[in-house]
Structure formats: C-alpha cells, structure tokens
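Crash report, auto-generated. Payload:
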Amino acid sequence: MTHTRRVRIELTFKFIIYLILCAGSIIFLLPFLWMVSTSLKPASQVMVYPPRWIPHPIMWINYIKGWTTLPFTLYLENTCIITFSVIAGTLFTASLAAYSFSRLRWPGRDIVFVITLATLMLPSQVTMIPVFLMFRDVGWLDTFKPLTVGAWLGGGAVNIFLIRQFMMTIPVELEEAARLDGCSTFGIYWRIVMPQLKTCLAVVAIFTFLATWNDFMGPLIYLTTPDKYTLALGLQFFQGHYGVTMHYLMAVSLIVMAPCLLLFFLAQKLFVTGIALVGIKG
Amino acid sequence: MNGNSIFKSRMAKREALEGLLFAAPLLLGLLIFTLYPVLDSLYISFTKYNIFTPPEFIGLQNYRNLVNDSLFWQSLRITTIYSVISVPLQLVAGFAVALLMNQKVRGITIFRTIYYLPSVVSGVAVSLLWVWIFNPDYGLANVMLRAAHLPTQKWLTDPRTALGSFIFMSLWGIGGGMIIYLAGLQGVPQHLYESASMDGANIYQKFRHVTLPMMTPVIFYNLVMGIIGSFQVFTQAFVMTSGGPANATLFYVLYLFRQAFNYFRMGYASAMAWVLFAIILALTLLVLKSSSAWVYYEGERKR
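Recovered output after restart:
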C-alpha cells in the first residue's frame, strides 16, 4: 500500500517537473521562433497586430536580399580570417606556455604563472587605451593585426590555465621514453603531448571561436574602413542603414548566429564537458 | 664534482632555456599587452591627452573631475542597479533550473540543449533580436502581455523601464550558469544523500544540509564571474539604446568608451578605467572575504 503511494507521489512530482521544464523551454525558444518567423515574412506582414506566426507566402528571398544589401560576404571573409588566426594562435601559444608551466623547470616560473592568472582580474578597459595608442604608433589601425596578435602572444590566461590543468592529468612515462629515444623537447610537445590534448584543445577552440566571432568592441575600436568590417560590425551598421526593415535584419542576424548554433549542436558534449572543466577548476 | 653532476647541471640549464623559450610568446605578451599598458594607463590617467597633442600632466585633476561629473555618477548608478538585481536573479534562476535538470526525467538532454541554446549566441545579432522583441507596437514582449490581458510596456523607449528591459533580457542567458551548476550537482557524492536518508532527512533537509553546502564553491564562482561581467556590459547598450533614453541605460563601460573614442579624452577615460578596476577588485575581495563564512570546501579538496 505505502509502496504504491510512494510511487504515485514520485510520478506526480516528476510530472510537475516535466510541466515546468516544458513551459520554460517554450519561453526560451520563443525569441528564436519569433526571429525565424519575422525573417520569412513579406514586408507587409512584419508590422501587424496580431502577429502572423506562419507567414504567407514564406519569403526565403529575404535572406538573399538582406545579405546582399551590404557586402556581407566580404564581412564574412574578414570575420573568418580573424577568427581562424585567433584560434590558431591561441591553441599554439597557450599550449606552449602550458607545457612550459607543467613540464619544464626554469627560474621564476611560478611567479610568472601567478602573474598570468592575476591578469584575469584586470578588466580589459584598463589596458585598452595604451594598447590602442601602441597600435596607432606602429601604424596598425584599420588592420586585422590588433585583433589577432594578442592570440599569438599567450592566447589568454584562462586558456593557458585550462590546458595546464589538463596536462597535469597526463602521465609523463611516454614523454620520458621519447626523451630516452632522443626526441627533442619540441618534438615531445608536438608529437606526444599535443595529440593527447585533443579534447581540451577542442574545448578551447570552441570557446575562442564564439568569443571572436561575436566580438564587437575590438572591431569597433580598430576597424574603420567598411571593406574591413566584421559581421558584428556590419550588422550594427546594417541596423542604421536606410530603408532596412526588421525582416531583413532578422534574416541576416540569423545567418550570423547560425555557425554558433551549428557548432553547439555538433559539439554539444564538448560544450558540456568544457564548461564543467572551466567552472569547477576555475 | 663528478661527471654525473656536471651532466645534470648542464641538463638543468638546458631545461631552463627551453622553458623560457616555450613561454617566450606569453612573456612577450605579458610585457606588451599587460605590464606596459597598465603602467602607461596609470600615467595617462594623470594627464590631459586628446591623442593629437602630447599628453599634459595634470595630477589628480581627472579623478577630481569625475567626482563632479553627473554622467559619471549616473553611469555608475545604472551599472550598480543592473548588477545588484541581475546577478542574484541569474544566480537563483540558474540554480533552480539546474536543480530541475538534475532530476531523472526522460528527455533531459533535450531540455538541457534548449535552456543552454541562448548562451551560445551573443553580441550584436542577439541585441538586434531583443530590440525587435521590445518593439512597443509589434514586438513579441507586448504581444505576450496583450495575450495575457496585461498592460503593455514601452520597454526600451521609456527611461523608467529601459534598464529593467536589460535585466529581463539577461535572464535569457542563464543557461551558461545553469550548466556549471549542473556539473556541480552531478559531482555531489551519492553516499552523502544515502546517509542523510538513513538519518531520516526529508527532501528539504537534504537540499539544505547536503546539496547547498556542497554547491557553495560553484555558487561562489558564478557570483564572482557574474559581478565582473555585469560591470562590463557594453555591446547590448551600444547597439540597443546607445545609452538612452535620457541616459537611463548609460552603462559604465559605454560612457568610458565614449570619453575615449568619441571625445578623445584619453586621460579621463583612463581614470574611469582605474575606478572600474578598483570597484571590481573591491567587490571581488569582499566576496572572497565573506566566502570563508559561507563557502564550504571538503577538507582534502581545499586548494
């Protein structure tokens, strides 16, 4: 008797949880659905009340028209160049530093490591102005270099820390054996350690991609010629563009978001493990 | 000294050299992008500098001007209100959703995906989406209010509701915090619950005396990150309202950006940056100091 009662209570409990989760899901998804719906509407149906959730006719052409109003293909190229360079630089130099911190002994190493972590506390606004002036003095304003060169010089304290933590869990026997076989230090790093870091590097790459793809302040400060705009900058410019209405704006915004959403669906497991790694170890 | 120890010291020298070589990009980066700029920024904050003529040393004048700048106080007030409301809200909402997710319900991965989805998109595209959602005439927000027979709002176009709209929007992104809580919840050792059950603890008691204490390090992490993030809001404010209406959403970093790159008052903007740094540092230390009273670390896991 008590057993069946307990089962019944448990079932009701689960049902309530289910209901709450479903209701929440609808709320979280609605903005996306709203966006998709707007992006497919003919101009005459955008500003109407009550809204028509399923447009008629469905205007796929909005995506092409919106995309070609400004040179978005060019902005896409620029964004890809910057993002690719930042990811490559981050993976390479952050893992080099992490290797140095976790495997090699040199004087001052631990102090440098603490300083590196301390930079996490420093808001980027403090260094923003001197760094801007520096890039102006070397004539790099309105180029992609200010947006990428930092990634090739360390790649960020969080990433170094993450890769170092991950390296600490790898047993060193394989590296020692390679050393006895006469393998150079760089060879060990490149051929023995790096392949074992695949998961960790993938996590770093994903989060670096998202941050760079969506970065707005950097391009806003450094890029002035429209030919050099990134997607984020182009979108902002698009908003103020004459005669641009919501259906085009939503269509292009969706295209800009798409790679991030796609990446999430493809690498969902990595996302979850990666966040857990950052959250718990950080 | 025998041959062996000479060999060893030569090896150590070689290792030190290689260590420095491997860390060279980072060392260079620290010098060029952190150490030098920090010192330079401090110096600039004591000068009047419009980037076209050489900087002129004026001592503490920028900091004194800040005290009398009503827009500075406005931006600080706005940002503080935003932080004080949105950070705890996100903390509680994220934790609550994570608790629900931690139940063994079928299809939980689908829910996890949906709730996390908004957190993978950010920046200009999301800001534009929310501008449209908050449209007073045809936006989704008022569509929903009308459907529920509630009074519609002016959202971003009314100084009284603009900041609230930003806070509301920030709740869409609780998925990031939620995933971190979820990872923490799944790391709570099962035997603690079992022994609590054996002692006759009910659901609430288990939550209060097992889950909550075990989760305090994660809550602490999310709290610190939330505070730091909330003081650096920029893109949304720039894209959605450019600080308006009537400076109701003039976030601190937006005002700093304007001083630096619209008015070219680099000294003044640098002084603002240092004040921001001081605020973030003070708040972080405050939380850190309070943490010994409420953050629980398992003996052997204590760092």
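Post-recovery validation: The two ends of chain B are 40 Å apart (CA to CA).
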